[in-house]
Amino acid sequence: MLIPCMRNSLMYGISGGLGIGLAHFLFTSNVSKSTNVGMASYIAVMIGTWGYCRYHLALERAKTYELQKAMHNRSGSSNIRLLDPKDV
Fold this sequence. Notes:
The chain crosses the membrane at residues 9-27, 39-57. One of its GO terms (cellular component) is mitochondrial inner membrane. One of its GO terms (biological process) is mitochondrial respiratory chain complex IV assembly. Belongs to the COX20 family. The mean pLDDT is 86. The protein is built from 2 helices and no strands. It is an all-alpha fold.
């Protein structure tokens, strides 16, 4: 099973780290410090986007659960089930 949101977080982290590290190198011409800045920004962007995505995924799942519970109470039948598009 895949970890939700991890692919996008890695892609944004890698591109953000490369971009910020390269921009820092162009302004300072210091390879060692630019590498550290690029690595730190990679980690910060990756964790930030992963947390943001997971938060919105949890909100979406809570809304789906509430809708399923409301439909179950309204119709009285338990065979109605809505699927989350991210789980398919």
